[in-house]
Amino acid sequence: YSGKSAISLALAMGFQEKGLSVHYMKPIGASLRRFGDEFIDEDAYFAWQALGIEADWELASPVLLTQEMIEASLSGPVPGLEDKILSALARLSEGQDVIILEALSGLTGGWALGLPVKRVAELTDAKVVAVFAHHLNPDLDGMVAVHSTCQERLIGMVINGTPPQMIPSLQERLKPFVEFYGLPFYGILARDKVLRSITVAELCEALNGEVLCGHEGLDEMVETYMVGAMSSHAALRHFQRKANKAVITGGDRGDIHLAALETSTRCLILTGNLRPTCECWARL
Q1: What does the pLDDT look like over 64-82, one tens digit per residue?
Q2: DSSP code for 216
Q3: How many domains does the chain have?
């Protein structure tokens, strides 16, 4: 993930703090969750909750990548989608100073529908900020491709999620590249553990799991994941490598459970529909 949802929300909240009226829309929703009898994009749902937007949910993501929509796109670009987006945007824009639009990932997202990023930007007359995930070697081809595709609509680029200690060297490495191609480069954002974390409760909900014990720890933040599939002798040293983690292992691996609980472990994710041993229950 590049973190474009978090950056979109941060921009919207920043505008709100300046006293501006802001709405958010994800023209094409791909991360679907059921909302009553309908579907809604998860990113749009979270953004609307965070921003306190009160409007018809259908405006949050006017085009949803349901199975029916995917099947329809097999016959070519689906007619009527541009009008649907423009209609939703017009209604959502009423009385607002700023509208934040979040695109699908990559330049090719939405292409089969006839709605790639470039077309959505043209359709809505939007400016584009491109967000790139951090990699040891930056996505140089992607940066040039976005610049070439979006042209004057591209107002900035951001690399997100870089370890803080690597930012100065990455800036120096990128400087001649940015200058040679004339890229509108905003800068590099540091990795934030909290933003990349999830609560134990949210993790349980996502997995449709059952909480066996430790309900008082459901608000604890999980920062990373480890798999417990090794011998009991190697388990303790393995789990000491990472803190604030969730350990995924079989429900019958009592030795792994106990080793994980000796380290900084937020929760155990037990597979196989198997319950812990009595010894583990006592430790839990």
Answers
A1: 999 999 999 999 889 999 9
A2: G
A3: 2
